[in-house]
């Protein structure tokens, strides 16, 4: 079993492995641009979950916008404790439209989905 405690978007993030803590820098809930498409040079999806599992899990990141979902990244994490921080990093990530963008993190062991959580980023038009 996996249960997410939190999931946040930020410009950058780091994990202190010795303390098991997650630090997020410049958290994001909305961004403003005069036009799209634009590219975010750095985007970090930071999360903390609790688990009773051992071994490895696959973490998949999907982007949902305008009713469509797209797999944008995945990683394998080794579960080593009951409370686990994690970060998925994206570089030069394109945003092609205004509106709400949901970043969905889904955890799998094999093909069994264990947990799912999302964080939203609102892309707004900046008036001149």
What would you say this structure looks like, in words?
It is built from no helices and nine strands. It has 128 residues and is mostly beta strands. The chain has a single domain, classed as Immunoglobulins (Immunoglobulin-like), CATH 2.60.40.10. The strands form two sheets. It has a five-stranded mixed β-sheet, with no helix packed on it. A hairpin with a 2-residue loop joins strand 8 and strand 9. The chain is globular and about 50 Å long. The protein starts with a strand and ends with a strand.
Give a topology summary.
Elements: E1 2-16, E2 21-28, E3 30-33, E4 38-51, E5 55-65, E6 68-79, E7 83-95, E8 99-109, E9 112-125
Parallel strand pairs: 3-9
Antiparallel strand pairs: 1-2, 1-4, 4-7, 5-6, 5-8, 8-9
What is the compact description of this entry?
The protein has 128 residues and is an all-beta fold. Helix content is 0%, strand content 80%. It is globular.
Proportion of strand residues: over 45%
**Please, what is the average pLDDT?**
94
Q: What's the CATH superfamily, by name?
A: Immunoglobulins
> H/E order of the elements?
EEEEEEEEE
- Alpha carbon gyration radius: 15 Å
Helix content: under 10%
CATH architecture: Sandwich
**Helix/strand class:** mainly beta
Kindly provide the name of the CATH class: Mainly Beta
How many E strands?
9
Low-confidence stretches: none
**Shape field:** globular
């Amino acid at each position: 079993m996996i249960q997410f405690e939190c999931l946040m978007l930020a410009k950058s993030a780091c994990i202190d492995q010795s303390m098991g803590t997650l630090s997020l820098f410049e958290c994001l809930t909305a961004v403003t641009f005069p036009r799209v498409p634009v590219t975010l040079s750095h985007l970090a999806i930071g999360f903390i979950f609790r688990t009773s599992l051992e071994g490895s899990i696959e973490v998949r990141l999907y982007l949902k916008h305008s009713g469509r979902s797209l797999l944008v990244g995945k990683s394998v994490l080794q579960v080593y404790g009951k409370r686990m921080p994690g970060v998925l990093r994206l570089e030069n990530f394109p945003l092609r439209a205004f509106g709400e963008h949901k970043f969905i993190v889904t955890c799998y062991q094999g093909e069994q989905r264990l947990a799912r959580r999302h964080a939203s980023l609102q892309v707004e038009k900046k008036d001149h």
